[in-house]
Amino acid sequence: MASASSQAFSTKRAVVPILWFYEVGNGLLMAYRRKRITLDQIDGFLTRLKALPIEAAQETPNELLKLPAIAQKHSLTNYDVAYLALAIRFHLPLATTDADLRRAATAECRDHQGVEERPG
Question: Is residue 31 located within the same domain as residue 67?
């Protein structure tokens, strides 16, 4: 059964930092080494992943060197802020379950785009 996020990706695009590809590859490799998945499962996953509309954002050194300040501001990792910065830059929703990252996204959008936080 397809997850909600993979169904959403089938009709929309995802923009990710190049870092994402390293994270995916490392996650698969660690799962294999811990005997949680097989090589065939890795191959199948990568085949499905290649079919999704995922694009790697081109980032300049200047853009990348702004990340530590944003990370410090929100007490996040530089890695997390890489995703946040792209969501802001491309005006895309941030796909995360991390509460701290969601709070930072709300704050940054409010600061930079005039988006107001609305009660649920």
Answer: no
Handedness of CA 33, 20, 107, 64 (dihedral sign): positive
The tens digit of pLDDT for each residue in 91-117 reads 888 889 999 999 999 998 876 554 333
Q: Six-digit token pair at 96? A: 């995360």
Global model pTM greater than 0.85 = no
**Which H helix or E strand runs over 28?**
helix 19-33
* CA angle in degrees (0–180, nearest 5) for 22-10-25: 15
Work out whether strand 54-56 and strand 14-16 pair parallel, antiparallel, or are unpaired: parallel
**In total, how many domains does the chain have?**
2
Asked if residue 49 belongs to a domain, the reply is yes
- The residue with tokens 């701290």 is 100
| Pair 93, 101: CB distance under 8 Å | no
